[in-house]
Specification:
The protein is an alpha/beta fold. It has six helices and eight strands; from the N terminus they run H-H-E-E-E-E-E-H-H-E-E-E-H-H.
């Protein structure tokens, strides 16, 4: 005699629910898992982008202001003597080759497959950075350019950049190229600093939203 209870009759409501329930629960579990991983990457994963940027910009200038999560979807905006910069960060620690708009990873096919479901792929950093810079451009006085930057906050990332429309940098000052040295090396004639009055007007117009 078989052990355990019998399966519900598929022709009954109970049997139908018994068969459908796993199919309904599984997608919900997958979606919940993806959201959880996404939230972890954005708000819990170390190093925290704002802290990595603050550490990497240390020593740049005491007239620099880093705004974090105040102008969403842009998460980091830097106003400094060199100008205004929209910073798009990446937390990935993999190996990447950059050629123009194209980013190639050295990960295995399986790693790329799992990255797709974890929603932690590299995405399109240059397009994202330019889009966020353009959004901020409309909030600043004419003649002041918002320049995009792509910054990796994990120093273990490996980058091979042959060409990129947007500078690709590290937050860690011990890596090359890094954001602090990049800003320091901007020629004097290319710098676009805001006056104190302009910064106050910008804050009044954007932080009150």
């Amino acid at each position: 005699q078989a052990l355990g209870g019998t399966l519900p009759d598929p022709g009954t409501l109970e049997g139908t629910l018994y068969l459908l329930l796993p199919a309904l629960v599984l997608p919900f579990g997958v979606i919940s898992s993806m959201i959880s991983v996404r939230m972890t990457n954005n708000w819990i994963r170390q190093p925290r982008p704002e802290l990595a940027l603050q550490a990497g910009l240390k020593g740049l200038s005491n007239r620099s202001v880093l705004y974090n999560y105040l102008h969403m979807p842009l998460r980091h905006l830097l106003i400094c003597p060199q100008g205004v910069f929209a910073i798009t960060t990446r937390f990935q620690n993999g190996s990447y080759q950059v050629d123009g708009e194209r980013w190639k990873t050295q990960e295995s096919a399986f790693s790329r497959f799992t990255s797709f479901f974890r929603r932690d792929g590299i995405g399109h950093p240059a397009a994202e950075a330019r889009s966020q810079a353009a959004r901020m451009q409309s909030l600043l006085p004419e003649g002041i350019e918002v320049r995009p930057l792509i910054v990796f906050v994990d120093p273990s990332a490996r980058l091979e950049v042959s060409d990129s429309p947007v500078p690709v940098l590290f937050s860690d000052s011990k890596r090359e190229p890094n954001i602090r040295d990049h800003l320091r090396n901007i020629p004097e004639q290319e710098r676009q600093p805001l006056t104190v009055t302009q910064i106050e007007e910008f804050e009044a117009a954007t932080l009150a939203e």
